[in-house]
Amino acid sequence: MNVKRKSKRRRSFLIFTILLLIAGFIYVVSNPSIKNAAIEEINYCQSKAEIKAVWNSHKTELGTDEDFLTAIRDRLTSFDLSDTAISECQSWLPKAPSHLNLIIVPDLSDRIIKYPDQIENDREILQSIWKSFETFAAKKPHSKDQICLTVTDQNQANKRFDEIADALITDLSLTEEKTNREYLNNYRRYKFYGKVDELYAMAKEHPTDADFFSFFEKDLNSYIKKSTFFEGYTNKLIIITDGYITNNEWGIKTETAGLEAEFKQTSTLNERIDILKKHKLNFPPANIDLSETEVLIYGIKGTKGFHEPILDTYWKDWLIRMNAKDIEIIRENFAVKENCKIIDEFIKR
What are the tens digits of pLDDT across the range 208-218? Predict the structure, then answer.
């Protein structure tokens, strides 16, 4: 009896194995034809709505197939869609690889000689930012992460910034022969540190007002990277400044005199923004959309009494008017190391 049962079990197992092999063979043979048919459908689509319909029909079996996804992204790209339409498509498509685009802009005005140890403070912050970028990027074998330190205008750094500008950009998309960890070695780190020292030595010779308004109006857009169907970018802007802004051409200035008493009576940001509106002190928004850019302002410190919350309000109101995706302001109140931790969290989140 036992022999018969074992024989039946063997036959059952054999039949099951044969059926499984047949099913696998059918899948292997038929799946390419399913994929090819789906890709052909994509190539005939005339709108993003038609492409979405094809995606919905095949996403169960082909949702992770790179050939199918590439066909969709290629076809969508060929339509020359608006930013709004691209965002809508990105909401249902699988996410493309994401990369960090980190932009740093220090204020090289007389703040660097007016406040004790300001240059040393800035150097420590900038070195910490590099380390955070290095740690973040080194976790990935390859990426298109980028860190760029620039200035607000050509008058900064005694008009000599061009001499070191290229050395303050690290674009990991250009280093495919090496992994991120191999490329971001001690040489790169200390080269960055050295160029930061050169930058501040230049600036100290002849400090000039940092023209943030012109930078936002004319230059910042060239540093921001737009996400595509093939690559996603997280834009993060770090500004190092005491918070005071002046632009004579546009008649812009962070007026603080006479506002302290009114600000002391407020408890919310909206109330403080209303005070700026009442006195017609709001900065006009620059011609830029920051809806895909996170912004961190570091170092705000008013020279008198209640100036810090006033400067804080100027910046937040201005960035809100330009649709900044996220806004974080760190006053230079704490120990530098504590501020470095906050900036590190901003970069890596």
Answer: 999 999 999 99
Query: CB-based contacts of 284: which residues, under 8 Å, 6+ apart?
Result: 250, 252, 321
Residues 279 and 209 occupy one common structural domain = yes
329 and 277, same domain (yes or no): yes
Residue type at 178? K
Q: Which residues contact 320 (CB under 8 A, 6 or more apart)?
A: 327
Contacts of 335 (CB under 8 A, 6+ apart): none
Neighbours of 128 (CB within 10 A): 18
- Model pLDDT for residues 221-274, shown as the tens digit of each residue: 999 999 999 999 999 999 999 998 877 677 788 888 889 889 999 989 999 999
Same structural domain for residues 111 and 133? yes
What are residue 295's DSSP bridge partners?
237, 327
Helix (H, G, I), strand (E, B) or coil at 19: helix
Of 281, 131, 269, 289, whose CA–CA distance to 196 is shortest?
131
CATH of the domain at 207: 3.40.50
Task: Report the sign of the C-alpha dihedral through residues 24, 30, 34, 36, in that order.
Answer: positive
The answer on pLDDT for 207 being more than 50 is yes
Q: 40-49, 64-73, 99-108 — which one is most confidently predicted on average?
A: 99-108
| Per-residue model confidence (pLDDT) at position 83 | 86
Supply the mean pLDDT for the chain: 88
325 Cβ neighbours under 8 A, 6+ residues apart: 290, 291, 292, 293, 294, 295
Provide the residue range defining the domain that includes 154: 98-348
Give the integer Cα–Cα distance in Å for 215 and 151.
Answer: 8
Amino acid at 2: N
